[in-house]
Amino acid sequence: MARAGMERWRDRLALVTGASGGIGAAVVRALVQQGLKVVGCARTVGSIEELAAECKSAGYPGTLIPFRCDLSNEEDILSMFSAIRCQHSGVDICINNAGLARPDTLLSGSTSGWKDMFNMDPCWRHPIALPGLQVNVLALSICTREAYQSMKERKVDDGHIININSMSGHRVLPQSVVHFYSATKYAVTALTEGLRQELREAQTHIRATCISPGLVETQFAFKLHDKDPEKAAATYEHIKCLKPEDVAEAVIYVLSAPPHVQIGDIQMRPTEQVT
Fold first, then answer.
1. Which of 6, 128, 235, 244 has its CB surrounded by the most CB atoms within 10 Å?
2. What is the 3-state secondary structure (H, E, C) of 91-153?
3. 60 among known catalytic residues
4. Is the pLDDT assigned to residue 51 strictly greater than 90?
5. Other C-beta atoms lying within 10 Å of the C-beta of residue 6
6. The pLDDT value given to residue 224
7. Alpha carbon separation from 103 to 71, 107, 125, 175, 176 (Å, rounded)
8. Which SS3 state, helix, strand or coil, does residue 233 take?
9. Which tens digits make up the pLDDT trace of 126-179?
10. pTM to 2 decimal places
11. What's the CA gap between 252 and 5, in Å, rounded?
């Protein structure tokens, strides 16, 4: 069912990173349901292709376009935006959702490992997962820049850039395995506010929003604790967690706000979550 305020986005293009599962997949589905053309990107697109077929068979008015993109590779990101420009004109909404965490503490992490996290060399690959700063901060910044340039060159003055952040970007938990992750999310908080200020300086009505969920039941904990699946499962068992659809609902709320309303930050967590 069409939501009030979403009519102006119908048939316009949204880019969603990290769209292969969890929050990203829920956001993609919600946007397609509202009639948007959505480019959903991830390193592997099998699950996105399945979701696209599901959306089509369900008769949703929008369209999902799977796109393979390795966000640790700047050339991949630039090629994706180039393809969007050639095939679909450009981006009207950019939702930076992709993110990750690794259980590396501040006291035991290697200097070389931290340096690698800043390395944007296209040939570099982590043997286990994409490094946190590359995806959580640098890729987000590159996608934001390219999305803004896409809007600017087409004189789109009502676009929207949404960063899916975390409550870890607003407080530091006494858990050593997420301290570096928290640092990347604090960066997203600062980047979103800095973006809002720069958009104002540019005298544009493009909006910037940060959505910071607490504990969401996804595969996130299983990737963080990939060597201890029992610990990962226990993360979601002690309280009723948020669902990816709850975050997707927040995205729709933000997008449906009147153009003169700037929603800067939404902090949301399970009712039972203490910290």
1. 244
2. CCEEEECCCCCCCCCCCCCCHHHHHHHHCCCCCCCCCCCCCHHHHHHHHHHHHHHHHHHHHHH
3. no
4. yes
5. 17
6. 64
7. 20, 12, 18, 10, 8
8. helix
9. 333 344 566 788 899 999 999 999 999 999 999 999 999 999 999 999 988 888
10. 0.90
11. 9
Lookup: tokens for 221? 């904990």
> Which of the following is catalytic: 60, 181, 186, 236?
181
- Residues 158 and 254: their CA atoms lie apart, in Å, by 13
The contacts of residue 12 (CB under 8 Å, 6+ apart) are 36, 37, 92, 93
Phi, psi of 186 (to 5 degrees): -60, -35
pLDDT at residue 15 greater than cutoff 50: yes
Q: Which amino acid is at 189?
A: T
Between the two ends of the chain, the Cα-to-Cα distance in Å is 35
Q: In what order do the strands lie in the sheet with 63-68?
A: 63-68, 37-42, 13-17, 93-96, 160-164, 207-213, 265-268
How crowded is residue 141: how many other Cβ atoms within 10 Å of its Cβ? 16
- Candidates 196, 211, 202; CA nearest to 247 is 211
- Alpha-helical segments (H) within the chain: 22-33, 46-57, 74-88, 111-118, 132-133, 140-153, 179-201, 220-224, 229-235, 244-256
Structure tokens at 44: 């592997």
Cβ(188)–Cβ(212) below 8 Å: no
